[in-house]
Automatic annotation (TrEMBL):
Family, as annotated: Belongs to the isocitrate and isopropylmalate dehydrogenases family. LeuB type 1 subfamily.
UniProt keyword terms in alphabetical order: Amino-acid biosynthesis, Branched-chain amino acid biosynthesis, Cytoplasm, Leucine biosynthesis, Magnesium, Manganese, Metal-binding, NAD, Oxidoreductase
Site residues by UniProt (Important for catalysis): Y144, K191
Cofactor descriptive note: Binds 1 Mg(2+) or Mn(2+) ion per subunit.
Designated gene of the protein: leuB
PANTHER family: 3-ISOPROPYLMALATE DEHYDROGENASE
Compartmental location: Cytoplasm
Entry GO terms, CC: cytosol
E.C. numbers: 1.1.1.85
Enzymatic reactions: (2R,3S)-3-isopropylmalate + NAD(+) = 4-methyl-2-oxopentanoate + CO2 + NADH
UniProt cofactor(s): Mg(2+); Mn(2+)
Domain Isopropylmalate dehydrogenase-like: 6-354
Protein name (Swiss-Prot/TrEMBL): 3-isopropylmalate dehydrogenase
GO process terms (BP): L-leucine biosynthetic process
Length: 359
């Protein structure tokens, strides 16, 4: 018996508009092959929304999001804002607002290396082989949401790093539940030797850990974690950390997978899930047709698993990506000196190869 789901597609800015189309096509193919009914709507957010409405998250898009079972997102951002920090209305405000409005407090980023991409990373293959990490990044607290101050003379600024006990408790429990289904190892990353917010974080994680005696818990300072992630990534299973540290560590971990163009993510709470590649809008390559669509396709696979409970269908998508890589096809970001030129593909050709392997 097939399921019926409403999916909101928000392509966003830059290459988001190019790669999200392939995530949607994969979902459409899965629905057809497994007799599900997926209904798609589209919304705008980010720079394109500011240009159209003056608002990075228009109310119409927010209402569509609330009425959806899941959201497939592309990326937001534009060089205009990077080059002018004085602009008051910014694309990122839309992303922060939708996370807050939908209660998306946990960002899941699986860092799983396909064997076919061992040579794509700058890290030695013998260090990488077998790496499989699941990050839980807290999304609604920390310096991103704390009070922001700039003095009248504009010479001093501050961002408040703030966490509440309940915020740490709820993401810690999600991380522990996930660890129980994996290798039963959890590493909590903080800076408790310096930061009061991190001391609260560690205290709460230690309390939650008592509820999961079957999971081995390790606490690690952020600076050490950043080093260990490159030195010995296989030591990690589930990693849980705050908003700022998680932002940095998961981008660093993209080198384990070979490219940001390979990494999917899920932002979840207690209702609608939000699924996106982590690579950003990449305006330097937007419109050139060379962006890697695999992260968006793998984000669709995450949606099938986490939001819809369709694990078989999710694994089918992952296997199609794996088969495409095994056949030797690469986009520029994951190609290397051994890649045959005729097998270096653009966005649409790569997406089409995955669809061939999906059917």
């Amino acid at each position: 018996m097939g399921v019926e789901k409403k999916i909101l597609v928000i392509p966003g800015d830059g290459i988001g508009q190019e790669v999200t189309a392939w995530g949607q096509k994969v979902l459409t193919t899965i629905a057809k092959n497994y007799h599900h009914t997926f209904t798609f709507e589209e919304g705008i957010m980010g720079h394109v929304a500011i240009e159209a409405t003056g608002d990075p998250l228009p109310e119409e898009t927010l209402q569509k999001a609330r009425n959806s079972d899941a959201i497939l997102f592309g990326a937001i951002g534009h060089a205009k804002y990077d080059n002018d920090p004085t602009l008051k209305v910014r694309p990122e405000q839309g992303l922060l607002k939708i996370r807050k409005e939908l209660g998306l407090y946990a960002n899941l980023r699986p860092i799983k290396l396909f064997d076919e991409l061992l040579e794509a990373s700058s890290i030695k293959p013998e260090i990488l082989r077998g790496s499989d990490i699941l990050f839980f990044r807290e999304l609604t607290g920390d310096v991103y949401f704390g009070e922001k101050i700039r003095t009248a003379d504009r010479n001093t600024a501050s961002d408040l790093m703030i966490y509440h006990r309940y915020e740490v408790e709820r993401i810690a429990r999600k991380a522990y539940e996930a660890a129980r289904t994996r290798r039963k190892k959890l590493c909590s990353v903080d800076k408790a030797n310096v930061l009061e917010a991190s001391r609260l974080w560690r205290e709460v994680v230690q309390e939650v850990a008592k509820e999961y005696p079957d999971v081995e818990t390790e606490h690690m300072f952020i600076d050490n974690a950043a080093m260990q992630l490159i030195k010995d990534p296989k030591r990690f299973d589930v990693v849980v950390t705050g908003n700022l540290f998680g932002d940095i560590l998961t981008d660093e971990a993209s080198q384990i997978a070979g490219s940001m163009g390979m990494l999917a993510s899920a932002s979840i709470g207690d209702s609608t899930g939000f699924f996106e590649p982590i690579h950003g809008s990449a305006h330097d390559i937007a419109g050139k047709g060379i962006a890697n669509p695999l992260a968006s396709i793998l984000s669709a696979a995450l949606m099938l698993d986490i939001s819809f409970g369709l694990k078989t269908e999710s694994q089918r998508v992952i296997k199609a990506v794996e088969a495409t890589l095994r056949q030797g096809y690469r986009t520029m970001d994951i190609a290397n000196k051994h890649t045959v030129n005729d097998f270096i593909m653009g966005t649409d050709a790569m997406g089409a190869k995955v669809l061939e392997n999906l059917n």
